[in-house]
Amino acid sequence: MIYLKPKTRLAEASRGRIVNLIPSSRQVSLLNDRLKSKSGFTIVELMVVITIMVLILTAFLLNLNAGRSARNLNIALNQLVTNIRKVQSYTLSGRNITPGLTADYYVMKFDYPTTTSYTIQAIYNTTSTPTVTTVETVKLPPGITFSGVATITRPGSLVPSSYASSCALLAYKLPFGRILMNNGCDVNIAFPDQDDYVKIVNFVSNTDNYTVSSDSNLSVILTNDKKATKTVTVYGSTGRVDFQ
How far is CA 234 from the centre of its chain? Predict the structure, then answer.
């Protein structure tokens, strides 16, 4: 009988354990079957998922843009109505243009060649040399413009009964806020009688074929890139501001 030395037995046992760690061919086959059963998405499945995600994202962006257009239109409407009332308050409170410089009229200018903004102005020195200065230029929100032209509807049987104006002036006379409207915005130093601001200053009473009138109504239309509209109307006889 041959006896192995302890060290030899240990070596043999270690080799046996190493051999047992090597998988058999059957174990390898079973492992491959499991890996195949857990395979990922196919290209077709991935394309379907990506297409669905793109459609959802597109619909979301379209709705977001439509909502932004409607929101900006409402902002422009509220801003315009607020500014009209602000100019009315300037007039009734006798607000100076700058410290020591007194206004005789506050004016809102709607110049349709510039459809993305409007101007708040003041007229002073009306007893000597009428002078116009800009108080503030208000820009409309992105995607919002004035649509068409301003419409001045004149009272009674005046001729013409209305003006479709490419540039209109809405003037408030201090100190009591009398409202005058004019079809035209020209400044003409050489020929004062053709100056639309001078016409406002020199206005006495409603006259046929005269571009300035009192007790008239002025309507302006705001629109967005989706063709939705809002109309603001100022009533000269009462000072009321309507919008729809």
Answer: 22
Task: Show me where the domains of the chain are located.
Answer: 59-243
Give the whole-angstrom CA distance, residue 131 versus residue 104.
10
Q: What is the pLDDT of residues 193-219, one digit of tens each?
A: 889 999 999 999 999 999 999 999 999
The single residue listed with the structure tokens 């409207």 is 181
Q: What are phi and psi of 200, to 5 degrees?
A: -65, -45
pLDDT in tens, 58-94: 776 666 566 789 999 999 999 999 999 999 999 999 9
pLDDT at 30 over 80: no
Q: Per mean pLDDT, which range of 23-27, 48-52, 86-90, 167-171 is the poorest?
A: 23-27
What is the SS3 assignment for the chain?
A: CCCCCHHHHHHHHHHHHHHHHCCCHHHHHHHHHHHHHCCCCCHHHHHHHHHHHHHHHHHHHHHHHHHHHHHHHHHHHHHHHHHHHHHHHHHHHCCCCECCECCCEEEEEEECCCCCEEEEEEEECCCCCCEEEEEEEEECCCCCEECCCEEEECCCCCCCCEEEECEEEEEEECCCCEEEEEECCCCCCCCHHHCHHHHHHCCCCCCCCCCEEECCEEEEEEECCCCCEEEEEEECCCCCEEEC
